[in-house]
Amino acid sequence: MKLEMSDSVELYYETYGEKGDKLVVLVHGLGAEGGMWAPQIEKYPSEETFLVVPHVRGHGKTSKVEQFRISDCARDIKELMDHLGINRASLAGVSMGGVIVQRFACDFPDRAEKLIIADSFSEVASLSDKLRGWSQWLTIKLAPGLLVKSLGSVYGEPGQERALNYFRESYAEIDKEQLLRARAALNRFDITDRLSEVEAPALVLVGNGFGDAAIGWARKTADLLRNSRLEVLEGGKDPSNLVVPEAFDQKVLSFLKG
Questions:
Q1: Beta pairing, strands 89-94 & 22-27
Q2: What is d(CA 186, CA 213) in angstroms, rounded to the nearest whole number?
């Protein structure tokens, strides 16, 4: 389904489950689309959960944009909720999706029930983090094929085939210019001065597969939020919902029902 936003972007979204059940908006990561949530789409409706799964602007079947702003992505979710007659919802975001969820919770605090922020971050501040982000931007700009080739080493362990196959297909179809604009926006993201305003309970998840740096980013986010807890997923890595879906789902569903 498509919905025209206030700035004329056509947002594509899908819904799964029964409308009367617990409502969760799933926000995907960079270079992905709603299909990134396939394991959760298959499982959560049977757990009395109604899912709303948008494609972030510039991704999937949603319109391309001249300028990518995290604030616009957060507003898209608010306008989608308005359209569906949803006052409050829980939101789950992985990687870039976690960034968008944080911005949504700050911009529309009365609309956020619970937050799940996975394999994400709240700022790009240190020199090493900036170099990492802009190095990826440069790779997309000059040698996008290297991203696809690198997937085998990133998701080459047993049990990670679903993530590997998903991103091979997704990266082969993504618009390079849209990916560059989104990556640049993420490289400038910093919401650390606002997270203390958020009152919604938050579950911060991070896989240990990308080492101490990723865990450190997640810990900082959890520390800045008033009402949060941090959980490390053994063997997980961005996106943990695809890499270790069973562990991810156990934590998320328990948090949503708790």
A1: parallel
A2: 17
How many other C-beta atoms are found inside a 10 Å radius of the C-beta of residue 86?
18
Structural domain including 62 reads: 2-123+191-257
Which residue(s) pair with 115 in the sheet? 91, 202
CA distances from 198 to 30, 168, 225 (A): 24, 36, 6
| Structure confidence by residue, pLDDT tens digits, 248-257 | 999 999 999 9
Position 200 confidence tier, pLDDT thresholds 50, 70, 90? very high
Q: Is the pLDDT of residue 245 over 90?
A: yes
**Tell me, what CATH number does 200's domain have?**
3.40.50.1820
To 10 degrees, the CA torsion angle through 127, 58, 26, 111? 90
Give the count of domains, the chain: 1
* Angstrom distance (rounded) from CA 27 to CA 36: 9
pTM for the full predicted model: 0.97
